[in-house]
Amino acid sequence: MSNDSPFSGPTCAAALLAGVCACLWWPFLPAWPLLVLSLLAGIALAWRARRARVLGVLLLGFGFAGLHAAAALHRQIPAALEGKAHEVSGRIVGLPLHEVRRTRFEFVVDADPTQPPALRGKRLRIGSFDDDPRNRAGLVAGSRWRFHVQLRVPQALRNPGGNDGEMQAMAARIAATGYVLEPALALRLAAPTGIDAWRERMSGRIAAALPVASARFIRALALGDTRGLDDRDWSRLRAAGLTHLIAISGFHVGLVAGFFALFAAAAWWVVPGLCRHVPRPFASGFAAVAGAFAYAAMTGFALPTLRTAVMIAALVAARCLRRRQRLADTLALGCIVLLLLDPLAVLGAGFWLSFAGVAWLLWCLPPDQGRRRWAMLRGFVAAQAVATLGLLPLTVMLFGQASFAGPLANLAAVPWWSLVVIPLALLGVLAESLHGGWGEAGWWLSAQAFDLLWPALARIADSPLAMAWLPEPRWFALPLALLSAFWLLLPRGVPGKPLALLLGLPLLHPPLDLPRHGEVELVVIDVGQGLSVLVRTARHSLLYDMGPAMRDGFDAGERAVVPALHALGVRRLDAAVLSHGDNDHAGGWASVAKAFPVAALLAPAGSPAPGITACSAGQSWEWDGVRFRVLHPTPWFPYLGNEASCVLRIESAHGSALLTSDIGNVVESKLLRVAPRALRTDVLVVPHHGSAGSSSKAFVAATRPRLAVVSSGAGNRFGHPRAEVVRRWCDGGAEVLDTARAGAVRIWLRQAGVQRPGLLVDERRMARPRLWDAARRRHGTAGLCYAPEMQRP
């Protein structure tokens, strides 16, 4: 490709990537005419104006990504269809995930006129609930079904340190999420067919042929089927820095392409007459490209496989055209092609880790290691060091953790898995595809080879020093850390390398903004239909409830509370309060207790939580100038579930807060009689998620908070918070926020001036708006009744 081409070289790839990122990370999506204008102006400048080519490519990327994002958001179902039953027919795509009492899968609705017009041809993410797994056995990849479903716009929890499910849904073009109504009435229309069905069958054959625990890893390494890996497996892989190997990677594609190339070369050697039509090098190259793309299709066009297939195609094309092409140009071409195929790919972590890892290696390592002794081993060790240091800023920013055992584990796992375990597994798949039963030997050998190394890797991963969770950094920490890595990887002799380490401090040791003495911070974590509140003083932390944990596999303690605590820099809990034993408040306790040391656990007497200190009215303690008082239940109060909830009052010199859990009107009346003065507060967590049986007029009048926070799940079946309850709090002078709309709500009671205490509020969705934020698009503001004069960061 010549230098005059509008899309040549790493510079144009970087400009295109910058334009795509600038659009997708903008807080709102520009109007489509502006996006079209940006696209056309970018094409004109990139093609005609030599000096403005980079600007043109940037504008092209901005407009192109914006149009893709607008199309993805437009495909999401309208609000009028939410909560209603729809009959749909279509095909299950991808590999369904079978859990304890539900199966989750993606479903593409047929595009024929018999389907609802607003759902034709759209991709849905659906769950089918049934306690008997045998009734869900027919939900396999590639099969066609007719379901009655209830849907809603994709909406996920929004917390510090949590995954952005709405971003992932938009990147996957998910139009709606929902569940199957009356699974017994579902009708299968056709048997499974296609590549997804082949993957499901092959995965089942591996599981049947290998009655050993490592079979789940062989399925993941051979087919990208990670459904068998449990939470402990993933935590070990993350701690050892091996997640990039366990899923289908670019190395898999290279192996398959190499096999195809060797097979073609052998065929041309056996039949020399074929060279009259196609030269043998060309035939090998075409076979490598065909094998690479066939394998990428077989694995669902995962990003690393597609990137490698595109790069192989670029190398083969350059060779066929007799043109010399640098590896950096090949990588740039792969980036450009992928962005033009799907600009929303940048929303996934795989894009950045995949391209950034290769780019660091191409920049840092010499192209020729020479023939010196130990040159290959030295190059491999250097590559691990470069990848570890270069990708550390991205892994910390994307996942909030750093693997210190990664370099050591990768030194052993990369060559062994890549050169022994994976080739044997792929040979087993190839043999099984040719004839049933032929693949068992390859899979058995692959499992034996895997089991030789995995126990040692597991011991490394289980070490407490293997991995560190890091607090959520500020936005400027990533560019500074990348600059630090760039500086450290410069050639020897470049001055100031020790100073470059300082640039990584904002990422590796960010400021926590902890309260000062006498101040208090509350974080109402977005756990869906449940409750969890973190309370922090200058040197202490208390967790009030831990959210729900359902039998279907969702555990808010594991997926919301623990990541949020890590992102906020919490290392231990000085106390935890289980307000009562209901699942939506206490379900996540086991996950929290596993992740953090807890000095004391309080719960009402008679609560099902084991090993607790009874929570009783009259208890009080003081931390860092902040006083904590239990107002309910009184001694000898029977355990009655919601009505026995621990009510906790927090008092500081700068304001007070009241945590009421699930108390109803009866306990509210009791508190009005026995402790009326203790109810006046600045911040209040609304009782029982805003149900109709709580928040009486007298209670609202007695508390008179400036801020009332409701913890509820989006579209919950209870209708919480009730409109009449919200109106009572609004009429009482409070700003009312709902976690279903605002995401996590962070509140500071701190010194703001001489005249009055300071109340500072940060809503996760409003403070970090995204163009795919469903709640913000639908409601316009996170507040049920909004107070613009409330202080916000």
Commentary on this structure:
This protein is α/β, with parallel strands linked by helices. Among the domains are: 9-74, no CATH class; 79-192, Beta Barrel (OB fold (Dihydrolipoamide Acetyltransferase, E2P)), CATH 2.40.50.140; 520-785, 4-Layer Sandwich (Metallo-beta-lactamase, Chain A), CATH 3.60.15.10. An 8-stranded mixed beta sheet has the order 14-13-12-11-10-9-22-23. It has an 8-stranded mixed beta sheet with strand order 15-16-17-18-19-20-21-24. The longest helix has 29 residues, at 406-434. The two termini are 50 Å apart. The model is unreliable at 1-7 (pLDDT under 50).
Summarize the structure.
By secondary structure, the chain is α/β, with parallel strands linked by helices. Helix 1 packs parallel to helix 3 and helix 11 packs across helix 12.
CATH architecture identity of the domain at 520-785: 4-Layer Sandwich
CATH superfamily of the domain at 520-785: Ribonuclease Z/Hydroxyacylglutathione hydrolase-like
* CA-CA gap between termini: 50 Å
Radius of gyration: 29 Å
Beta-strand share of residues: 15-25%
Largest sheet: number of strands, sense, barrel closure: 8 strands, mixed
Rough shape?
globular
CATH topology of the domain at 520-785: Metallo-beta-lactamase, Chain A
> Helix count?
28
